[in-house]
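Sequence in, structure out. Go.
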Amino acid sequence: MNRSDLDVIAGSAVQKADLLEHKPFTYFMRALMAGFYLVVAIILSNICAAVLLKNYPEFSKLTGSFLFPIAIVLIVFLGAELFTGNNMTMAVGCYQRKVTVKQLALVWIVSYIGNFIGSFLLSYLFVKSGSSSAILIDYYNQIIEPKLALTPLQMVLRGVLCNFLVCIAVLVGSKMKTESGKLIVMFPVIMAFVVAGFEHSIANMGTYSIAYLLLGKLPMALVFKSMFFVTIGNMIGGAVLLALPLKLMSIDDK
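Output:
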């Protein structure tokens, strides 16, 4: 990793901070659209997994994991603002002294809120459409309880590992020169976090929103607990576990 590579990432951080400062509505809409794209991937992944769950449980998990990476493809290719990717980008910008801590915090907060609103809105439209409701009710009854039963430490660590992988996918994808190259790299890296059962705060927004609207209720105290600890883990995974070593390992270009 050369310092010129870090400068490119830091430049992206500056662009994000400037867009938020000068065109806040535009930035917010990009964050909202990232929530939309995550729910598109959740719908595809979860319905396919639900269809296979009863008779082919192992294949169900693999299929759902294989299909979910379409989320990061949509976000990267269509230029949306994802909180978890911003954890790395803004941290690198801060380490390089291109953005301030205040700018970092504002980008994180606004992208997080926008991601949630987008996730909930599309989840609401999907559930109210009545599409695939019966099969998804059974599926969510099986997957939600284990997620909420994790200990705080497990939530944090799974969040750390998840965003470490997500940000690696974004980072490596950004260095690919062709769209096919980006696809080849990003798909297996994102699949790795899904198949391993790591926790992504923004994906969980969509998952919990659909589950809440489908099932009629959720233990909200446990949902907020999960969101809090997973979000903390995601921030550490992107800003510390990946961005900080990138800074420390960088060398001057020859």
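Check: The two ends are 12 Å apart (CA to CA). The chain has a mean pLDDT of 95.
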